[in-house]
Amino acid sequence: MSGAEFLQLATTISLGVLTIAFFLTVVRIVIGPSLPDRVLALDMLVSIGIGYIAVIAIKTGFSLYLDIAIALGIVGFLATVAFARFILEHNQGSDGRADTEGTPL
Hints:
Layout: H1 3-31, H2 35-60, H3 64-91
Helix pairs in contact: 1-2, 2-3
């Protein structure tokens, strides 16, 4: 098996595993019992998207895709921080302290 054949096989397997992870994450978003579970699954979707972009960059040889993956990572991080702030404000009681009882939303 030559190096090019091995790279082709590895990228094909990687795309298959990422596709399975994508569908399992979508299931978690749909049936997630609480809002933090759904936010974590959305963050995982961003990570899977970055994985797709990285594998396609390796498969095609275009390094421009890596810049797109970095930008997606930054946007995903900012979205996760925004969702976390929303959850924190949503869980605060009337006295301004965070609700620490651990009740799902």
